[in-house]
Each structure stands twice: as C-alpha cells, then as structure tokens.
Amino acid sequence: MIDTTNFVADHHWIHDRLSIPASDELHIVERIRMIEGGTRLEIEFSLTDPKSWVGTWKMTKQWRRVDDRDIAEVECLPDLNEHMPSVHSDANIREETKR
C-alpha cells in the first residue's frame, strides 16, 4: 500500500479525462497487486480531498505483463530522457525551455 499526503496547496490537478483541482488536503491511497496468475498488475486508487470534493473518488487500472521487452531506466527530467517517445511532446516541456 502506498499512502500519500502533504501535497502543496493549489499547485496540482488530478487528470482523468477532466482536470480536477486538488488542495493540500488531498490524500491518495494506492493498493498494488498481481492478478490472473501474475499476468496483470492492478492498482486501486482511493482519493479524498475534503476541500475540493465530497466523498471518496475510487478507480482501478490494470496493465498486462509483457515479458518480451526490457524495461529502460527513466530519470524524472525530460532532458535526460531523449530516447523516450513521450518526452517529444510540448506538454512535457517546461514553459521557460520552449523554443
């Protein structure tokens, strides 16, 4: 289980087809498990934020296990990930570095 709190107020959004603002009271709990004999990874998310909405927002995501590919190490800075296709989008470039 991953339990995440202490977010910085007004500096983040929750994205899932809609942009939902989140406050410093956002609380995310993630439960991770292997299912279907280890062929799928499932993550259950539970989100609460009493400043932004009422109740708990829950969702589950699943990923299929892929054994025929190597997993590349990825750093959390776009400048270090030029080999990754996802870094070639304007959405991943900080405003001050756009050309």
What does this structure look like?
This protein is mainly beta and 99 residues long. 0% of the residues lie in helices and 36% in strands. The protein has a 4-stranded antiparallel beta sheet with strand order 1-4-5-6, with no helix packed on it. It has a two-stranded antiparallel sheet with strand order 2-3. A hairpin with a 3-residue loop joins strand 2 and strand 3 (19-21). It is extended and about 45 Å long. The N and C termini lie far apart (41 Å).
Total number of helical segments?
A: 0
Low-confidence stretches: 91-99
Task: Give the ordered list of helices and strands.
Answer: EEEEEE
Q: Please state the structural category.
A: mainly beta
Write down the Rg: 17 Å
Kindly report the spatial arrangement of strands forming the biggest sheet: 1-4-5-6
- Mean pLDDT metric: 78
The coarse overall form would be: extended
Kindly report the oligomeric state of this protein. single chain
**Strand composition percent:** 35-45%
Biggest sheet details: 4 strands, antiparallel
How many beta-strand segments?
A: 6
Helical content (DSSP H or I, runs of 4+): under 10%
Distance between the termini: 41 Å
Short description:
The chain has 99 residues and is mainly beta. The protein has no helices and six strands.
Question: Keywords for this structure?
Answer:
99 residues; mainly beta; four-stranded antiparallel sheet; 6 strands
